[in-house]
Amino acid sequence: MLRNGTRDPRIWPYPKRSIWNMPLGADADLVPAGLRKPADVTLAVEEDILVATPDAPSRPIYYSPAGWDPNRSRCGERTSRVLVASAPVAPGFRTDPGFFGRTPNHAAAILRPNGTLIETQPFHACADGSLVSMAAPPAWQGGSILRGDTGRHIHRGAHGASGLTAYGGTIRLGEWVPGGVIPHAVKIEVWGARYLSHMNGGFRWPAHNADRYQHDGTGGLQAYGGAQAAMRMGSLLALPPDSKLVRRLHSPAAKILARTLQRYGAYVVGNTGRDTVQFATEWGPSGRVLDQFQQAWGFPLFGSVHRTSGAQHEFLSDMKRIYKKLMVVDDNSPSHIGGRGKRLAPSAPPMAPLNP
């Protein structure tokens, strides 16, 4: 990740003063997020598709109308309509078959040679090599990993509920492994019906919007029902800097994430739609965090604490403890990213040139 004191922007992107790299402030105004033990899966994942192969041959992404209908096939219903004319995606990369869940969101960010992004959702790289998706509006295109997401300049992206990018805040390969560090803010999703408030449109900076059903529920989807007004789409969640929780955790894997939540925090970017918690992890041509996590730790990243044993049970039990201690950084704003006070971690190192 680091070479000659600089970071590879493809792996550790965005300026040091971006929302994704700014450490938390020691005097941040913290209010309880109110998360409790999930009744459903204790920990799930939101796999963001990150394709950083800007020199790969470009090819089209075709429109598929299947969307999130579990009875339809995204790849099987590929149309001839071109959604994105030119996307540099490594020829051998596939996400179908083998994806997690029945209808994953697969928010995707595809890096162009100039450091800007193509973002789309739900993306699939099909078994026959074709690329399909359903949405790639102009507002999602062109965000820069070299200049974006600083202060008042937050690019829109493929996490549709919040409007935030698929590229920033994703837990990357090599970060959630023994001895690893996650040196940036991460992305979290919670159950909107229980935890997210519909006050002020149901969102706050840096989110651009909330789910369209957040106020009254539409199409059988549940409205937001959280009682904590500070807890909305876009909220920055963190462990208090003086919390002794990290030292009391038993699982080394949980400690890695807890340290990140104490130094950088997690932005709420989506609604799980059920009583679980999800973090965004990378899947791309270089590999998949889900696979790397299991190989490194010897157990799956996702699961229910009451259905597991051994090291995974210890990990998920620690995750429950983390959820209960999470706070909302209520003074997170364009002028005080991460809240007020002295930074709790060093600034990100300079970025190396994208195309040396």
What's the SSE blueprint?
Elements: E1 2-3, E2 6-7, E3 30-32, E4 44-51, E5 58-63, E6 82-88, E7 108-111, E8 117-120, E9 124-125, E10 131-133, E11 186-190, H1 192-195, E12 236-238, H2 245-248, H3 252-263, E13 266-271, E14 278-284, E15 287-288, H4 289-297, H5 310-325, E16 327-329
Parallel strand pairs: 4-7, 4-14, 5-10, 11-13
Antiparallel strand pairs: 1-2, 3-16, 5-6, 7-8, 9-10, 11-14, 12-13, 12-16, 14-15
Helix pairs in contact: 3-5
Radius of gyration, Cα only, in angstroms? 19 Å
**What's the β-strand tally?**
16
Number of domains: 1
Quaternary state of this entry equals single chain
Q: Helix share of residues?
A: 10-25%
Shape: globular
Strand content: 15-25%
Largest sheet: 10 strands, mixed
Structure classification: alpha+beta
N-to-C span? 15 Å
What is the residue-mean pLDDT, rounded to a whole number?
96
Provide a quick synopsis of the model:
This protein is α+β, with helices and mostly antiparallel strands and 356 residues long. It has helices at residues 192-195, 245-248, 252-263, 289-297, 310-325, and strands at 2-3, 6-7, 30-32, 44-51, 58-63, 82-88, 108-111, 117-120, 124-125, 131-133, 186-190, 236-238, 266-271, 278-284, 287-288, 327-329. The mean pLDDT is 96.
